[in-house]
UniProtKB/TrEMBL annotation:
It comes from Caldilineaceae bacterium SB0675_bin_29. Heterodimer of SbcC and SbcD. This is Nuclease SbcCD subunit C. SUPFAM superfamilies: P-loop containing nucleoside triphosphate hydrolases. Signal peptide: none annotated. PANTHER family: ABC TRANSPORTER ABCH.3. It comes from the Bacteria. Residues 29-111 form the RecF/RecN/SMC N-terminal domain. Belongs to the SMC family. SbcC subfamily.
Length: 117
C-alpha cells in the first residue's frame, strides 16, 4: 500500500499476480495482508468498471494486516474516488477518525445496543 512501484494484474488463467521490481509473485505467494490488499484492489476495480452502483461495502478489510498496513489501508480506502458512499464494517478502530458517521453495536446486559456517533 502506498507503494506505487508494484503492479497487480490478472493472468489469462485469472490468476492474480503482483509484480515488484520486475519479479512476479502469485497470489498464494503473498502474505495474508498482501492477499487482503490485492483482493480489495480487485474488488474495487470490478465495482468501478462493471457497475453503476456508487456504493461499496468493506467487511473487515483490515483482517491479516499489521498496525502499519491497517493505517495505510484506512487512508487508502478513505481516499477512494468514484463512490458516493463507502460502508466499512470492522472491529478495528483504524477508520474512526476518517468517518463522517459512526455506528457502534455493543453488547450490554445480553442484548445488542446501537450507538450513533
Amino acid at each position: 500500500m502506498e507503494d506505487y512501484t508494484r503492479t497487480l494484474h490478472w493472468k489469462e488463467d485469472y490468476g492474480i499476480v503482483l509484480e515488484v521490481d520486475g519479479r512476479e509473485r502469485t497470489f498464494s505467494q503473498l502474505s495474508g495482508g498482501e492477499q487482503m490488499s490485492a483482493a480489495l484492489a480487485v474488488r474495487l476495480a470490478l465495482l468501478q468498471e462493471m457497475s453503476d452502483i456508487a456504493v461499496a461495502f468493506f467487511d473487515e478489510p483490515t483482517t491479516n494486516l499489521d498496525d502499519s498496513r491497517r493505517g495505510s489501508l484506512a487512508r487508502q480506502i478513505v481516499g477512494v474516488r468514484g463512490f458516493e458512499q463507502l460502508f466499512i464494517i470492522s472491529h478495528d478502530d483504524s477508520f474512526e477518525q476518517a468517518t463522517e458517521k459512526l455506528i457502534r453495536v455493543e453488547k450490554r446486559n445480553g442484548a445488542s445496543e446501537i450507538l450513533y456517533e
